[in-house]
Amino acid sequence: MNLGQMLFNGKCKVFAPFYYIPMEIGIKYFLQGNFSIKIINIMKKYLLLFSLTIFLFACNKDEEISQDVILPPVIELDSEDGIYVVKIGKEVVIEPTYQNVDYAVYSWKCNGRIISDEPQLKYIFNECGSYYVTLRVDTRDASTEEEIRVDVNELAPPVISLVTPSIGLKVVAGREYILTPDIQNAEGATYLWTLNGNEVGTENTYTFKQDELETYELTLTVTNEDGQSKKTVSIEVVDKLPIEIVVPSSLYFTENNTKYVELGRTLFVRPFVSISAEPSYQWSLDGQPIEGANSLVYGFKPAKTGEHTLTFTVKYDNQDTKAVLTRNISVSGVDEVSVNIPVKCCEAAGKRPFAAGNSIYSNKVYEFVPAPGQFVNETNTAGFNGESTHEAACAYAQKRLDNEQYVSLGGWGGYIVVGFDHSIENKGGYDFSIKGNAFDSSNEPGIVWVMQDVNGDGLPNDEWYELKGSEYGKPETIQDYAVTYFRPGLNMDTPWQDNKGNTGAIDRLGNYHPQEFYYPLWIEADSYTLYGTCLKARTEQSPSTGMWSNNPFGWGYADNIGDDMPNKDNPNAGALGNYFKISDALNIDGTSANLSHIDFIKVLFNRRYRCFRINRNRRFFTSLLYHFNTFFRLIGCLDMKSNTVRTGIDKFINISFRLIYHKMYIKKHMYTCVMTL
């Protein structure tokens, strides 16, 4: 478990549904995952004793995971920071907006009692002070809570909320944008809008329209009998609204963006869309719009073999309606961007049977794309030797794996792709095993993806299918997560930005990992983006020791003390196996992929953690140095002896682990970094 290096900069509420750092700290990290990869195909059939049947199959709890993605209620407050200021004896009015609230039940609770069951709160506090109110929304399938602070004062000047898009307010020249702020304590208030210092309006709303391409400073001043408040927003006028559509390819190092689908199967496509407005979608096939295909995810089932072109169009909106950028900003007009997706439907290549001379282990690394991290490019313990091409990086990874050594996947999204000299058959039970070194307080889950070589070219350029785990479909799990990493300067931190508007940097720890770049040397571009699923952190800090624990998930993840491993006792961070079923492979829409076999496996580090750092005298000290490097050793196999399931010890290569202790003193405290190799 590596030290979390990724910082999140922004307001606390931005990070839902993840764990929060106090707002005065305002910092979050990713923990990095280091993985050693070997995969064993479970070649032998096995029988289970009744007791073991209960243990091994009950752990997977397939019947408890719905294939329908549950959408939790969404609460958007009419205050940017969740704080409301009201004058004593005056009624506070809180009017959130909601999404996914069919058949919802509302409750507002303060000091342990419910003060309202309406969607909006209207309430009078008769004493000065700060009151914490919890808004809870319950639907049939999920619930959401939001904590609100109400400050009751003798005087209550206006409070202005004017929410802008997370990527900044970029507007199109010549188009009208209507700004409608939320104002607390607006009774009897006056308004003054200024643009670059010049008065432009005195109403509670303002319509912005400019033709010159430049950045403007718009300021709203609101005055009531108790005081005055100001709010300034920066508005960049551009000639075209930036709309970005990305359809991730199966491999980073490929120029082939063709999607392959087996005849009789459905190809599901989900583009990643970046736009500062609420768009509409339209899918077309071979130039003709598809009726009713207006969702982000589309399933295409060809009627015959051949080549097709899917077109995905993003548009907002039309001249007659208002598109909503945020709660407070709307715009009229039309912007449209399309992307073409080549699709080839073919008869599926057959399963490659296991034959004499085949290995039960993976035999080739096809792609090695770590996220930036403290072990990437590191020569001392990670064994790099200046690899600057992808071919060299794959050769490095293959050599390390052949020698039973780890490779580092860095921060969130880093991955490795391996293949076999035969196909792994879906036998309906556990089909392969992934070994890691997790223990109770150190779980760094890797989500596993599988692929069938449909086009038969021997390359992992077909479709990836995520293996369902215990967290799949939960409201807090983000299925369409992406992080972009940017090339840093020499000996500098590595910046990043995700597709949810969060930004930060991976710290460089020169005293321990002194390589000049944590950015992979074989990534030639100045930035690269990784895509995948992001799980909610289960990180907790002990109130007595101050140590942090990464708690396990239920099942379905590598390097995780879950119910899918027969032995969970691992105090010395030894190699333990998690077991996986090809039958758990899912389409993008959550339905079963029904794969008969697979040919490739991808392991992707997929978790964010809560950590923080402190700043003293312009020097950063990490407050969390109790961590472990995560290594996947995908060498587990199921073996049948005496009609039981057990670890195939005779097939495991003995692994020696050594502990490396890094010590750092902050005042009188010592923090220890434990790394297993």
Structure description:
This protein is mainly beta. It folds into 4 domains: 12-43 and 355-676, no CATH class; 74-153, Immunoglobulin-like, CATH 2.60.40; 159-238, Immunoglobulins (Immunoglobulin-like); 247-319 and 333-346, Immunoglobulin-like (Sandwich). Helix content is 3%, strand content 40%. The strands form 17 sheets. It has a 6-stranded antiparallel beta sheet. A 5-stranded mixed beta sheet has the order 4-11-10-7-8, with no helix packed on it. A hairpin with a 2-residue loop joins β25 (280-285) and β26. The protein is globular, with a radius of gyration of 27 Å.
User: Biggest β-sheet, characterized?
Assistant: 6 strands, antiparallel
Mean pLDDT: 77
Number of helices: 2
Q: What's the overall geometry? A: globular
Distance between the termini: 11 Å
Widest beta sheet: strand line-up: 32-34-46-36-37-45
What is the count of structural domains?
A: 4
Q: Which class of secondary structure composition applies to the elements?
A: mainly beta
Approximate strand percentage: 35-45%
Topology readout:
Elements: E1 34-35, E2 40-41, H1 50-58, E3 74-76, E4 83-87, E5 91-94, E6 97-99, E7 105-110, E8 113-116, E9 121-124, E10 129-138, E11 143-153, E12 159-161, E13 169-172, E14 177-179, E15 182-184, E16 190-195, E17 198-201, E18 206-208, E19 215-224, E20 227-238, E21 244-246, E22 259-262, E23 267-269, E24 272-274, E25 280-285, E26 288-289, E27 298-300, E28 306-316, E29 323-326, E30 329-331, E31 335-346, E32 364-369, H2 390-402, E33 407-408, E34 415-425, E35 432-436, E36 446-451, E37 465-467, E38 478-486, E39 494-498, E40 503-506, E41 527-534, E42 539-541, E43 548-550, E44 576-580, E45 585-586, E46 597-605, E47 613-616, E48 619-622, E49 632-633, E50 638-641, E51 644-647, E52 659-666, E53 669-676
Parallel strand pairs: 4-11, 13-20, 22-31
Antiparallel strand pairs: 1-33, 2-35, 3-6, 5-9, 7-8, 7-10, 10-11, 12-15, 14-18, 14-30, 16-17, 16-19, 19-20, 21-24, 23-27, 25-26, 25-28, 28-31, 29-30, 32-34, 34-46, 35-44, 35-49, 36-37, 36-46, 37-45, 38-39, 38-41, 39-40, 42-43, 47-48, 50-51, 52-53
